[in-house]
Amino acid sequence: MKVLTVTNRKGGVGKTTQTRTLCEYFSVTRRMSTLAIDLDSQCSLSHLFLDMDVSQAGEQGTRPPIHPDYNSEDPDYADWNGRSSSADIFFHGEIFPYRVQYPDGADTLDILPANKQQLTTVEEQDQPSLIERVENRLREFLSLPDVQEAYDLVIIDTGPGESPLARSALRACTHVLIPIELEPQCVRALSEMISEIRHEDMRRTLETQVQVVGIQPNKFKVRRTLHKSLLNTVQKEFKQYVSPVVLPDLSGFAERDADLAVPRSLFHLPPSNKAKIKAVEFCEFVDSKLFGETAHAKQA
Ligand SMILES: Nc1ncnc2c1ncn2[C@@H]1O[C@H](COP(=O)(O)OP(=O)(O)OP(=O)(O)O)[C@@H](O)[C@H]1O
Ligand SMILES: [Mg+2]
C-alpha cells in the first residue's frame, strides 16, 4: 500500500485540488482501491466528496454526515454516534470510512472526512508527550493489517500551516507531493519543506526514506514574467524534485469546486479541454512515480 501525503505549509497552493484530482484518477481511471484522508480542519476535501453536516450552532462546526451503515437501534452500534472522521484516528475511536458515491458511483473510493472541532482539538495540543503521540498515530493506524489489505493507495490532504497533524501526515507517508504557486514567499519556503522531509528521513531506514514525487508548480500564468522567472529558479534550485508537468491557472480547475458544477469531475470534461489534458498529464506523472514508469503500458 502506498501512502501519498499532499503537503505545503502555504495556504491556497492547490493541495486539495490536486488531492481530489488524484483520488478521481486512481479510483476511477486506474480502478485502484483508494482511501482519501482529510486532515484539514477546514474540511475542504470532505465537502467535495460528501454532503457534510454544517451545524447551525457553530460550536460543533462542520462534521461528517451520519454514516449510511449506521443504525441507531442496532446494539452493535450502541457506543457509536453514527459519524466517523479522520480525527477518530487520534482519539482511538472506531473508524468507518465513507464510500464516495461520486464520481461515477465508483466503488473504489473511500474517504475519512474531517471533523472541524475535533481536528482543531488535535491541532492545538500543546503537551509534548501528546504531540508526539499525534505525530506517530497516523502511521500506526495505516500500518494495521486491515487497512493495508483494504487499500492500494491512501492520499492525505493536509491543511496549511505547521501542526502536529501535518507532521503526522509526513511521518505516515511513503511518498510526498508538494504543490506550489510561483509566488516569492512560496518559493522561499521550499528549502525549509525539503529539509523537513530530510529530517523525517533521519528517523527511517534507507529502504523506507520518503519518496518525493515532486514539487508541483500550479496556477502558472504564462503571461506573468514573475511566474516564468520563479519557475526557472525552482527548476534550477530543486532540479531533482520539480515535476515536469506545469499546471496552468485555468478556470477548469477552480470551477469544479462548486457544489453544482457540471460536470463535477475534470475527467468528464471534453477531451479537448485544457484543464483535463493537463490533469491527465499530471496524474500519469504521479502514477509513474508511485507505481513505476511502466504502470500505463501495463494498464493499456
Ligand atoms: N491550476 C489551477 N487553476 C485555477 N485555479 C486553481 C488551480 N488549482 C487550484 N485552484 C483554485 O485555487 C484555490 C485554492 O486551491 P486549493 O483549495 O486546492 O488550495 P489548498 O492548498 O488546498 O488551500 P488550503 O491551504 O487553504 O487548504 C481553489 O479555489 C481552487 O479551485
Ligand atoms: Mg486545502
Question: Secondary-structure blueprint of this entry?
Answer:
Layout: E1 2-6, H1 15-29, E2 34-38, H2 44-49, E3 53-54, E4 62-63, H3 87-90, E5 98-99, E6 109-112, H4 116-123, H5 128-142, H6 145-150, E7 153-157, H7 164-172, E8 175-181, H8 184-188, H9 190-201, E9 211-218, H10 225-237, H11 251-254, H12 274-291, H13 295-299
Parallel strand pairs: 1-7, 1-8, 2-6, 2-7, 8-9
Antiparallel strand pairs: 3-4, 5-6
The chain binds adenosine-5'-triphosphate (ATP) and magnesium ion (MG).
Report on the architecture of this protein.
The protein is an alpha/beta fold and 300 residues long. The chain has a single domain, classed as Rossmann fold. The protein is 40% helix and 13% strand. The protein is built from 13 helices and 9 strands. It has helices spanning 15-29, 44-49, 87-90, 116-123, 128-142, 145-150, 164-172, 184-188, 190-201, 225-237, 251-254, 274-291, 295-299, and strands at residues 2-6, 34-38, 53-54, 62-63, 98-99, 109-112, 153-157, 175-181, 211-218. A 7-stranded mixed sheet has the order 5-6-2-7-1-8-9, sandwiched between helices. Strands 3-4 form a two-stranded antiparallel ribbon. A hairpin with a 7-residue loop joins strand 3 (53-54) and strand 4. Helix 5 (128-142) packs parallel to helix 7 (164-172). It is globular, with a radius of gyration of 19 Å. The two termini are 22 Å apart. The mean pLDDT is 93. Magnesium ion binds next to helix 1.
